[in-house]
Amino acid sequence: MTETSHNIPLVVDLDGTLVRTDTLWESFFAAWANDVWLPIRCVGWLVQGRAVLKQSLAARALDSRLTIESLPLNEAVLARLRDARASGRTTVLATAADVSIANAVAARIGLFDRVFASDGETNLKSQKKAATLVSEFGEKRFDYIGDSRADFAVWRAAREAFTVSDVKPSGVSRIEPIEQERSALASWTKLLRVRHWIKNLLVFVALFAAHRFTEPLAWQQAIFTFFAFCAVCSGIYVFNDLFDLASDRSHPSKRFRPLAAGSISLSSAFVIATLLLFLGLFLAFCTGLWVGAAVLGYCAINAIYTLKAKRIAVLDVSILAGLYTLRIVAGALAIAAPLSPWLFAFSVFAFLSLALLKRAIDINRLAPDEKLSGRGYTGRDAAFVNTFGAGAALAAVLVLSLYVSAPQAAVLYRNPAWLWFALAVILFWLMRMWQLAMRGASDDDPVLFATKDPTSWVCAALIAACFVAAI
Protein backbone atom coordinates (compact mmCIF):
# COMPACT_ATOMS: atom_id res chain seq x y z
CA MET A 1 0.00 0.00 0.00
CA THR A 2 1.18 3.55 -0.69
CA GLU A 3 0.91 6.36 1.77
CA THR A 4 -2.12 7.73 -0.08
CA SER A 5 -4.05 4.48 0.32
CA HIS A 6 -6.51 6.06 2.75
CA ASN A 7 -7.88 8.11 -0.16
CA ILE A 8 -8.45 5.01 -2.30
CA PRO A 9 -11.85 3.29 -1.85
CA LEU A 10 -11.90 -0.43 -1.10
CA VAL A 11 -14.52 -2.10 -3.31
CA VAL A 12 -15.76 -5.59 -2.45
CA ASP A 13 -17.81 -8.05 -4.50
CA LEU A 14 -20.68 -9.90 -2.81
CA ASP A 15 -21.28 -13.42 -4.20
CA GLY A 16 -18.39 -15.76 -3.56
CA THR A 17 -16.38 -12.95 -2.00
CA LEU A 18 -18.02 -11.26 0.97
CA VAL A 19 -20.47 -14.15 1.33
CA ARG A 20 -19.35 -17.72 0.76
CA THR A 21 -22.31 -18.49 -1.49
CA ASP A 22 -24.27 -17.15 -4.47
CA THR A 23 -27.30 -15.07 -3.51
CA LEU A 24 -28.97 -15.66 -6.89
CA TRP A 25 -29.07 -19.41 -6.30
CA GLU A 26 -29.97 -18.80 -2.66
CA SER A 27 -32.92 -16.70 -3.85
CA PHE A 28 -33.94 -19.33 -6.39
CA PHE A 29 -34.20 -22.17 -3.87
CA ALA A 30 -35.74 -20.02 -1.15
CA ALA A 31 -38.47 -18.91 -3.58
CA TRP A 32 -38.90 -22.35 -5.19
CA ALA A 33 -39.78 -23.84 -1.80
CA ASN A 34 -43.01 -21.77 -1.88
CA ASP A 35 -43.74 -21.92 -5.61
CA VAL A 36 -43.46 -25.26 -7.41
CA TRP A 37 -43.79 -23.56 -10.81
CA LEU A 38 -40.94 -21.12 -10.17
CA PRO A 39 -38.47 -22.69 -12.68
CA ILE A 40 -40.98 -22.07 -15.47
CA ARG A 41 -41.48 -18.46 -14.35
CA CYS A 42 -37.69 -18.00 -14.33
CA VAL A 43 -37.57 -18.76 -18.05
CA GLY A 44 -39.95 -15.86 -18.72
CA TRP A 45 -37.98 -13.49 -16.49
CA LEU A 46 -34.69 -14.54 -18.07
CA VAL A 47 -36.05 -13.71 -21.52
CA GLN A 48 -36.54 -10.13 -20.25
CA GLY A 49 -32.94 -10.03 -18.99
CA ARG A 50 -30.81 -11.26 -16.11
CA ALA A 51 -31.48 -8.07 -14.15
CA VAL A 52 -35.23 -8.78 -14.28
CA LEU A 53 -34.64 -12.39 -13.21
CA LYS A 54 -32.57 -11.28 -10.21
CA GLN A 55 -35.07 -8.63 -9.16
CA SER A 56 -38.03 -11.02 -9.42
CA LEU A 57 -36.29 -13.80 -7.52
CA ALA A 58 -35.02 -11.43 -4.83
CA ALA A 59 -38.53 -10.07 -4.22
CA ARG A 60 -39.94 -13.57 -3.73
CA ALA A 61 -36.99 -14.88 -1.77
CA LEU A 62 -36.89 -12.06 0.77
CA ASP A 63 -40.63 -12.57 1.31
CA SER A 64 -40.16 -16.29 1.89
CA ARG A 65 -37.21 -18.19 3.32
CA LEU A 66 -34.05 -16.29 2.38
CA THR A 67 -32.47 -15.20 5.66
CA ILE A 68 -29.81 -12.59 5.07
CA GLU A 69 -28.65 -12.83 8.68
CA SER A 70 -27.62 -16.46 8.22
CA LEU A 71 -25.59 -16.14 4.99
CA PRO A 72 -22.04 -17.47 5.58
CA LEU A 73 -19.47 -14.67 5.53
CA ASN A 74 -15.81 -14.68 4.50
CA GLU A 75 -13.97 -13.65 7.65
CA ALA A 76 -10.81 -12.70 5.73
CA VAL A 77 -12.76 -10.17 3.64
CA LEU A 78 -14.52 -8.85 6.75
CA ALA A 79 -11.13 -8.29 8.35
CA ARG A 80 -10.00 -6.25 5.30
CA LEU A 81 -13.18 -4.17 5.50
CA ARG A 82 -12.72 -3.47 9.22
CA ASP A 83 -9.11 -2.42 8.66
CA ALA A 84 -10.16 -0.13 5.80
CA ARG A 85 -12.85 1.53 7.89
CA ALA A 86 -10.47 1.93 10.81
CA SER A 87 -7.98 3.72 8.56
CA GLY A 88 -10.67 6.08 7.25
CA ARG A 89 -11.02 4.60 3.77
CA THR A 90 -14.31 4.57 1.87
CA THR A 91 -15.73 1.06 1.60
CA VAL A 92 -18.00 0.05 -1.26
CA LEU A 93 -20.10 -3.02 -2.01
CA ALA A 94 -20.30 -3.55 -5.79
CA THR A 95 -22.24 -6.61 -6.92
CA ALA A 96 -24.26 -8.07 -9.75
CA ALA A 97 -26.83 -9.22 -7.19
CA ASP A 98 -30.11 -7.32 -7.01
CA VAL A 99 -30.03 -4.06 -5.07
CA SER A 100 -32.54 -5.37 -2.50
CA ILE A 101 -30.21 -8.23 -1.61
CA ALA A 102 -27.14 -5.96 -1.64
CA ASN A 103 -28.76 -3.39 0.66
CA ALA A 104 -29.91 -6.10 3.07
CA VAL A 105 -26.39 -7.57 3.29
CA ALA A 106 -24.84 -4.10 3.65
CA ALA A 107 -27.24 -3.34 6.49
CA ARG A 108 -26.28 -6.58 8.21
CA ILE A 109 -22.54 -5.95 7.88
CA GLY A 110 -22.65 -2.25 8.73
CA LEU A 111 -19.26 -1.57 7.13
CA PHE A 112 -20.17 -0.03 3.77
CA ASP A 113 -20.40 3.63 2.79
CA ARG A 114 -21.90 2.98 -0.63
CA VAL A 115 -23.63 0.17 -2.54
CA PHE A 116 -23.70 -0.48 -6.31
CA ALA A 117 -25.88 -3.33 -7.54
CA SER A 118 -28.20 -4.56 -10.30
CA ASP A 119 -31.50 -2.70 -10.31
CA GLY A 120 -33.93 -4.62 -12.53
CA GLU A 121 -32.69 -2.83 -15.65
CA THR A 122 -28.90 -3.00 -15.49
CA ASN A 123 -27.08 -6.23 -14.65
CA LEU A 124 -24.01 -4.82 -12.89
CA LYS A 125 -21.52 -7.48 -13.90
CA SER A 126 -18.07 -7.60 -15.50
CA GLN A 127 -17.63 -4.71 -17.98
CA LYS A 128 -20.66 -2.80 -16.65
CA LYS A 129 -19.39 -3.02 -13.08
CA ALA A 130 -15.92 -1.89 -14.18
CA ALA A 131 -17.37 1.03 -16.16
CA THR A 132 -19.51 2.12 -13.21
CA LEU A 133 -16.59 2.06 -10.78
CA VAL A 134 -14.26 3.86 -13.20
CA SER A 135 -16.93 6.50 -13.83
CA GLU A 136 -17.37 6.99 -10.08
CA PHE A 137 -13.79 6.79 -8.82
CA GLY A 138 -11.54 6.92 -11.90
CA GLU A 139 -9.19 4.44 -13.58
CA LYS A 140 -6.81 2.84 -11.07
CA ARG A 141 -8.42 4.90 -8.31
CA PHE A 142 -9.96 2.02 -6.31
CA ASP A 143 -8.90 -1.37 -4.93
CA TYR A 144 -11.10 -4.37 -5.64
CA ILE A 145 -11.68 -7.78 -4.04
CA GLY A 146 -13.42 -10.36 -6.25
CA ASP A 147 -13.44 -14.09 -6.88
CA SER A 148 -14.36 -15.12 -10.46
CA ARG A 149 -13.64 -14.68 -14.16
CA ALA A 150 -16.49 -12.16 -14.28
CA ASP A 151 -14.20 -9.87 -12.24
CA PHE A 152 -11.39 -9.75 -14.81
CA ALA A 153 -12.56 -6.42 -16.24
CA VAL A 154 -12.82 -4.89 -12.77
CA TRP A 155 -9.41 -6.18 -11.69
CA ARG A 156 -7.84 -4.57 -14.78
CA ALA A 157 -9.41 -1.23 -13.89
CA ALA A 158 -8.42 -1.40 -10.21
CA ARG A 159 -5.26 0.00 -8.65
CA GLU A 160 -4.75 -3.12 -6.54
CA ALA A 161 -6.62 -6.34 -7.23
CA PHE A 162 -7.34 -9.20 -4.84
CA THR A 163 -9.06 -12.58 -5.13
CA VAL A 164 -10.43 -14.95 -2.51
CA SER A 165 -10.59 -17.97 -4.86
CA ASP A 166 -8.28 -20.05 -7.00
CA VAL A 167 -9.07 -17.78 -9.96
CA LYS A 168 -5.88 -15.71 -9.88
CA PRO A 169 -4.80 -13.94 -13.09
CA SER A 170 -1.47 -12.15 -13.33
CA GLY A 171 -1.20 -9.11 -11.08
CA VAL A 172 -3.98 -10.25 -8.70
CA SER A 173 -3.07 -11.12 -5.09
CA ARG A 174 -4.82 -13.88 -3.22
CA ILE A 175 -6.37 -13.27 0.20
CA GLU A 176 -5.84 -16.42 2.23
CA PRO A 177 -8.84 -17.63 4.26
CA ILE A 178 -8.81 -17.23 8.03
CA GLU A 179 -11.07 -20.19 8.70
CA GLN A 180 -9.80 -23.72 8.06
CA GLU A 181 -11.32 -25.13 4.87
CA ARG A 182 -12.27 -28.75 4.30
CA SER A 183 -10.78 -30.46 1.22
CA ALA A 184 -12.96 -30.69 -1.89
CA LEU A 185 -13.15 -34.48 -1.62
CA ALA A 186 -14.19 -34.33 2.04
CA SER A 187 -16.81 -31.67 1.26
CA TRP A 188 -18.36 -33.65 -1.60
CA THR A 189 -18.29 -36.87 0.42
CA LYS A 190 -20.16 -35.15 3.21
CA LEU A 191 -22.58 -33.41 0.83
CA LEU A 192 -23.48 -36.64 -0.98
CA ARG A 193 -23.95 -38.40 2.38
CA VAL A 194 -21.84 -41.39 1.36
CA ARG A 195 -22.11 -42.66 4.94
CA HIS A 196 -25.88 -42.76 4.53
CA TRP A 197 -25.58 -45.38 1.79
CA ILE A 198 -25.63 -47.95 4.57
CA LYS A 199 -29.40 -47.34 4.78
CA ASN A 200 -29.76 -48.69 1.25
CA LEU A 201 -28.63 -52.12 2.43
CA LEU A 202 -32.33 -52.54 3.21
CA VAL A 203 -32.82 -53.58 -0.43
CA PHE A 204 -31.06 -56.86 0.49
CA VAL A 205 -33.56 -57.68 3.27
CA ALA A 206 -35.97 -59.42 0.88
CA LEU A 207 -33.09 -61.44 -0.57
CA PHE A 208 -32.35 -62.93 2.84
CA ALA A 209 -35.94 -63.06 4.08
CA ALA A 210 -36.90 -65.14 1.02
CA HIS A 211 -33.78 -67.33 1.48
CA ARG A 212 -32.59 -66.57 -2.07
CA PHE A 213 -29.05 -65.59 -1.08
CA THR A 214 -27.55 -68.50 -3.05
CA GLU A 215 -28.85 -67.20 -6.41
CA PRO A 216 -26.31 -65.13 -8.40
CA LEU A 217 -29.01 -63.47 -10.54
CA ALA A 218 -30.90 -62.37 -7.43
CA TRP A 219 -27.69 -60.83 -6.08
CA GLN A 220 -27.10 -59.01 -9.37
CA GLN A 221 -30.59 -57.51 -9.32
CA ALA A 222 -30.29 -56.50 -5.68
CA ILE A 223 -26.88 -54.89 -6.24
CA PHE A 224 -28.21 -52.85 -9.18
CA THR A 225 -31.11 -51.72 -7.00
CA PHE A 226 -28.70 -50.82 -4.19
CA PHE A 227 -26.61 -48.54 -6.42
CA ALA A 228 -29.74 -47.04 -7.95
CA PHE A 229 -30.87 -46.00 -4.46
CA CYS A 230 -27.38 -44.75 -3.59
CA ALA A 231 -27.37 -42.41 -6.60
CA VAL A 232 -30.95 -41.24 -6.12
CA CYS A 233 -30.60 -40.76 -2.36
CA SER A 234 -27.41 -38.71 -2.73
CA GLY A 235 -29.15 -36.50 -5.29
CA ILE A 236 -32.14 -36.07 -3.00
CA TYR A 237 -29.93 -35.27 0.00
CA VAL A 238 -28.33 -32.48 -2.02
CA PHE A 239 -31.71 -31.08 -3.05
CA ASN A 240 -32.87 -31.25 0.58
CA ASP A 241 -29.82 -29.23 1.61
CA LEU A 242 -30.48 -26.70 -1.15
CA PHE A 243 -34.01 -26.14 0.10
CA ASP A 244 -33.01 -26.22 3.79
CA LEU A 245 -30.19 -23.66 3.72
CA ALA A 246 -31.84 -21.22 6.12
CA SER A 247 -32.93 -23.83 8.68
CA ASP A 248 -29.62 -25.71 8.48
CA ARG A 249 -27.69 -22.52 9.25
CA SER A 250 -29.67 -22.08 12.47
CA HIS A 251 -29.00 -25.68 13.55
CA PRO A 252 -26.08 -26.33 15.95
CA SER A 253 -24.51 -29.08 13.81
CA LYS A 254 -26.16 -28.83 10.37
CA ARG A 255 -24.72 -25.34 9.89
CA PHE A 256 -21.39 -27.05 9.11
CA ARG A 257 -22.82 -28.89 6.11
CA PRO A 258 -20.98 -27.96 2.89
CA LEU A 259 -23.80 -25.95 1.29
CA ALA A 260 -24.83 -24.20 4.49
CA ALA A 261 -21.20 -23.28 5.20
CA GLY A 262 -20.50 -22.23 1.61
CA SER A 263 -17.84 -24.89 0.99
CA ILE A 264 -19.43 -25.98 -2.31
CA SER A 265 -21.16 -23.73 -4.82
CA LEU A 266 -24.93 -24.11 -5.09
CA SER A 267 -24.79 -24.28 -8.89
CA SER A 268 -22.34 -27.21 -8.85
CA ALA A 269 -24.43 -29.00 -6.25
CA PHE A 270 -27.58 -28.53 -8.32
CA VAL A 271 -25.97 -29.97 -11.46
CA ILE A 272 -24.48 -33.00 -9.66
CA ALA A 273 -27.75 -33.70 -7.84
CA THR A 274 -29.70 -33.65 -11.10
CA LEU A 275 -27.20 -36.02 -12.79
CA LEU A 276 -27.35 -38.41 -9.84
CA LEU A 277 -31.14 -38.54 -9.98
CA PHE A 278 -31.09 -39.44 -13.67
CA LEU A 279 -28.33 -42.01 -13.12
CA GLY A 280 -30.27 -43.67 -10.31
CA LEU A 281 -33.47 -43.84 -12.32
CA PHE A 282 -31.55 -45.27 -15.30
CA LEU A 283 -30.07 -48.05 -13.14
CA ALA A 284 -33.45 -48.76 -11.58
CA PHE A 285 -35.30 -49.13 -14.90
CA CYS A 286 -32.43 -51.28 -16.21
CA THR A 287 -33.09 -53.59 -13.26
CA GLY A 288 -36.80 -53.84 -13.94
CA LEU A 289 -39.89 -51.82 -14.74
CA TRP A 290 -41.38 -52.22 -11.28
CA VAL A 291 -38.07 -51.41 -9.61
CA GLY A 292 -37.89 -48.25 -11.73
CA ALA A 293 -41.45 -47.38 -10.73
CA ALA A 294 -40.57 -47.87 -7.05
CA VAL A 295 -37.47 -45.65 -7.30
CA LEU A 296 -39.42 -43.04 -9.27
CA GLY A 297 -42.09 -43.12 -6.56
CA TYR A 298 -39.35 -42.69 -3.97
CA CYS A 299 -38.20 -39.53 -5.78
CA ALA A 300 -41.76 -38.18 -6.08
CA ILE A 301 -42.53 -38.75 -2.39
CA ASN A 302 -39.25 -37.10 -1.46
CA ALA A 303 -40.16 -34.07 -3.59
CA ILE A 304 -43.44 -33.73 -1.69
CA TYR A 305 -41.57 -34.15 1.58
CA THR A 306 -38.93 -31.54 0.68
CA LEU A 307 -41.32 -28.90 -0.66
CA LYS A 308 -44.11 -29.22 1.89
CA ALA A 309 -44.53 -32.29 4.10
CA LYS A 310 -41.36 -31.89 6.18
CA ARG A 311 -42.92 -28.83 7.81
CA ILE A 312 -46.11 -30.71 8.79
CA ALA A 313 -45.82 -32.47 12.16
CA VAL A 314 -46.54 -36.24 12.21
CA LEU A 315 -46.86 -36.38 8.42
CA ASP A 316 -43.11 -35.86 8.11
CA VAL A 317 -42.15 -38.90 10.21
CA SER A 318 -44.85 -41.02 8.55
CA ILE A 319 -43.32 -40.28 5.15
CA LEU A 320 -39.80 -41.00 6.43
CA ALA A 321 -40.96 -44.40 7.71
CA GLY A 322 -42.60 -45.10 4.35
CA LEU A 323 -39.41 -44.20 2.46
CA TYR A 324 -37.39 -46.67 4.52
CA THR A 325 -39.98 -49.38 3.89
CA LEU A 326 -40.01 -48.58 0.17
CA ARG A 327 -36.37 -49.67 -0.02
CA ILE A 328 -37.38 -53.13 1.20
CA VAL A 329 -40.29 -53.20 -1.26
CA ALA A 330 -37.94 -52.29 -4.14
CA GLY A 331 -35.56 -55.07 -3.08
CA ALA A 332 -38.41 -57.58 -3.19
CA LEU A 333 -39.50 -56.32 -6.62
CA ALA A 334 -35.93 -56.61 -7.92
CA ILE A 335 -35.78 -60.36 -7.21
CA ALA A 336 -39.49 -60.98 -7.91
CA ALA A 337 -40.07 -62.23 -4.37
CA PRO A 338 -43.41 -61.85 -2.59
CA LEU A 339 -43.23 -59.38 0.29
CA SER A 340 -44.29 -60.99 3.53
CA PRO A 341 -47.01 -59.04 5.37
CA TRP A 342 -45.08 -59.80 8.57
CA LEU A 343 -41.95 -58.16 7.20
CA PHE A 344 -43.96 -55.22 5.89
CA ALA A 345 -45.70 -54.63 9.24
CA PHE A 346 -42.45 -54.97 11.20
CA SER A 347 -40.72 -52.53 8.83
CA VAL A 348 -43.44 -49.90 9.12
CA PHE A 349 -43.39 -49.88 12.93
CA ALA A 350 -39.60 -50.16 13.24
CA PHE A 351 -38.93 -47.33 10.80
CA LEU A 352 -41.66 -45.15 12.27
CA SER A 353 -39.89 -45.54 15.60
CA LEU A 354 -36.54 -44.56 14.04
CA ALA A 355 -38.13 -41.58 12.25
CA LEU A 356 -39.65 -40.38 15.53
CA LEU A 357 -36.29 -41.02 17.22
CA LYS A 358 -34.56 -38.77 14.69
CA ARG A 359 -37.07 -36.02 15.39
CA ALA A 360 -36.96 -36.59 19.16
CA ILE A 361 -33.20 -35.95 19.22
CA ASP A 362 -33.79 -32.39 17.98
CA ILE A 363 -36.98 -31.72 19.97
CA ASN A 364 -35.52 -32.84 23.29
CA ARG A 365 -32.96 -30.02 23.00
CA LEU A 366 -35.64 -27.31 22.76
CA ALA A 367 -37.18 -25.14 25.43
CA PRO A 368 -40.96 -25.74 25.79
CA ASP A 369 -42.01 -22.78 23.62
CA GLU A 370 -39.06 -22.97 21.21
CA LYS A 371 -39.80 -24.01 17.62
CA LEU A 372 -37.78 -26.58 15.70
CA SER A 373 -36.43 -24.69 12.70
CA GLY A 374 -37.90 -25.85 9.39
CA ARG A 375 -40.21 -28.39 11.06
CA GLY A 376 -43.68 -28.29 12.58
CA TYR A 377 -42.70 -29.05 16.17
CA THR A 378 -42.03 -27.18 19.40
CA GLY A 379 -40.39 -28.25 22.63
CA ARG A 380 -43.83 -29.13 24.03
CA ASP A 381 -44.06 -32.02 21.55
CA ALA A 382 -41.23 -33.90 23.27
CA ALA A 383 -43.53 -36.08 25.38
CA PHE A 384 -45.73 -36.89 22.36
CA VAL A 385 -42.82 -37.84 20.12
CA ASN A 386 -41.05 -39.85 22.82
CA THR A 387 -44.20 -41.75 23.77
CA PHE A 388 -45.28 -42.65 20.25
CA GLY A 389 -41.72 -43.46 19.20
CA ALA A 390 -41.21 -45.90 22.04
CA GLY A 391 -44.69 -47.32 21.37
CA ALA A 392 -43.85 -47.90 17.70
CA ALA A 393 -40.67 -49.74 18.77
CA LEU A 394 -42.70 -52.04 21.01
CA ALA A 395 -45.23 -52.60 18.21
CA ALA A 396 -42.40 -53.66 15.87
CA VAL A 397 -41.13 -56.18 18.42
CA LEU A 398 -44.69 -57.46 18.98
CA VAL A 399 -45.15 -58.06 15.24
CA LEU A 400 -41.86 -59.95 15.12
CA SER A 401 -42.83 -62.07 18.13
CA LEU A 402 -46.15 -62.99 16.49
CA TYR A 403 -44.26 -63.98 13.34
CA VAL A 404 -41.87 -66.20 15.30
CA SER A 405 -44.90 -67.92 16.84
CA ALA A 406 -46.67 -68.33 13.46
CA PRO A 407 -46.52 -71.52 11.34
CA GLN A 408 -44.66 -69.65 8.54
CA ALA A 409 -41.55 -69.40 10.70
CA ALA A 410 -41.46 -73.17 11.23
CA VAL A 411 -41.60 -73.68 7.46
CA LEU A 412 -38.72 -71.28 6.61
CA TYR A 413 -36.47 -71.97 9.63
CA ARG A 414 -35.24 -75.32 10.95
CA ASN A 415 -34.57 -73.88 14.42
CA PRO A 416 -37.02 -70.94 14.82
CA ALA A 417 -36.38 -70.83 18.58
CA TRP A 418 -33.17 -68.86 17.82
CA LEU A 419 -35.34 -66.05 16.49
CA TRP A 420 -36.51 -65.34 20.03
CA PHE A 421 -32.95 -64.45 20.96
CA ALA A 422 -32.76 -62.12 17.94
CA LEU A 423 -36.02 -60.54 19.04
CA ALA A 424 -34.63 -59.90 22.53
CA VAL A 425 -31.53 -58.22 21.07
CA ILE A 426 -33.67 -56.02 18.77
CA LEU A 427 -35.80 -54.98 21.76
CA PHE A 428 -32.67 -54.15 23.78
CA TRP A 429 -31.20 -52.09 20.92
CA LEU A 430 -34.37 -50.07 20.37
CA MET A 431 -34.78 -49.40 24.09
CA ARG A 432 -31.16 -48.28 24.35
CA MET A 433 -31.45 -45.96 21.36
CA TRP A 434 -34.49 -44.28 22.87
CA GLN A 435 -32.78 -43.96 26.24
CA LEU A 436 -29.78 -42.25 24.63
CA ALA A 437 -32.07 -39.92 22.66
CA MET A 438 -33.97 -38.86 25.78
CA ARG A 439 -30.65 -38.21 27.52
CA GLY A 440 -29.41 -36.13 24.59
CA ALA A 441 -26.49 -38.52 24.06
CA SER A 442 -27.24 -39.51 20.44
CA ASP A 443 -26.30 -37.97 17.08
CA ASP A 444 -28.79 -36.15 14.85
CA ASP A 445 -29.30 -39.34 12.81
CA PRO A 446 -29.82 -42.55 14.84
CA VAL A 447 -28.82 -44.84 11.95
CA LEU A 448 -25.49 -43.06 11.49
CA PHE A 449 -24.99 -43.06 15.25
CA ALA A 450 -25.44 -46.83 15.21
CA THR A 451 -22.65 -47.21 12.62
CA LYS A 452 -20.22 -45.59 15.08
CA ASP A 453 -21.58 -47.24 18.22
CA PRO A 454 -19.75 -50.42 19.34
CA THR A 455 -22.80 -51.68 21.21
CA SER A 456 -24.91 -51.42 18.04
CA TRP A 457 -22.31 -53.43 16.10
CA VAL A 458 -22.38 -56.14 18.76
CA CYS A 459 -26.17 -56.22 18.58
CA ALA A 460 -26.06 -56.48 14.77
CA ALA A 461 -23.60 -59.39 14.99
CA LEU A 462 -25.75 -61.20 17.56
CA ILE A 463 -28.90 -60.75 15.45
CA ALA A 464 -27.14 -62.06 12.34
CA ALA A 465 -25.78 -65.05 14.30
CA CYS A 466 -29.25 -65.86 15.60
CA PHE A 467 -30.75 -65.85 12.09
CA VAL A 468 -27.92 -68.05 10.78
CA ALA A 469 -28.47 -70.48 13.65
CA ALA A 470 -32.21 -70.49 12.95
CA ILE A 471 -31.66 -71.39 9.27
Description of the structure:
With 471 residues, the protein is mostly helical. The chain has a six-stranded parallel beta sheet with strand order 3-2-1-4-5-6. Helix 14 packs antiparallel against helix 15.
Global geometry: elongated
Continuous helix count: 21
By CATH, the architecture of the largest domain is named Orthogonal Bundle
Mean pLDDT across all residues, rounded? 91
Overall number of domains: 2
- The percent range for helix content is 55-70%
Instruction: Report the major sheet.
Output: 6 strands, parallel
What's the total count of β strands?
Answer: 6
Distance between the termini: 79 Å
Could you tell me the strand content as a percent range?
Answer: 5-15%
Q: What is the compact description of this entry?
A:
This protein has 471 residues and is mainly alpha-helical. The protein is built from 21 helices and six strands.
What are the SSEs and their pairings?
Elements: E1 10-12, H1 23-32, H2 38-48, H3 50-62, H4 75-86, E2 91-98, H5 99-109, E3 114-118, H6 127-137, E4 143-146, H7 152-157, E5 161-163, E6 172-174, H8 184-191, H9 205-209, H10 216-243, H11 245-249, H12 258-261, H13 266-287, H14 289-307, H15 315-334, H16 341-363, H17 382-405, H18 407-412, H19 418-439, H20 446-452, H21 454-470
Parallel strand pairs: 1-2, 1-4, 2-3, 4-5, 5-6
Helix pairs in contact: 1-3, 2-3, 10-13, 10-14, 10-15, 13-14, 14-15, 15-16, 16-17, 16-19, 17-19, 19-21
Task: Give descriptors for this structure.
mainly alpha; 21 helices; 471 residues
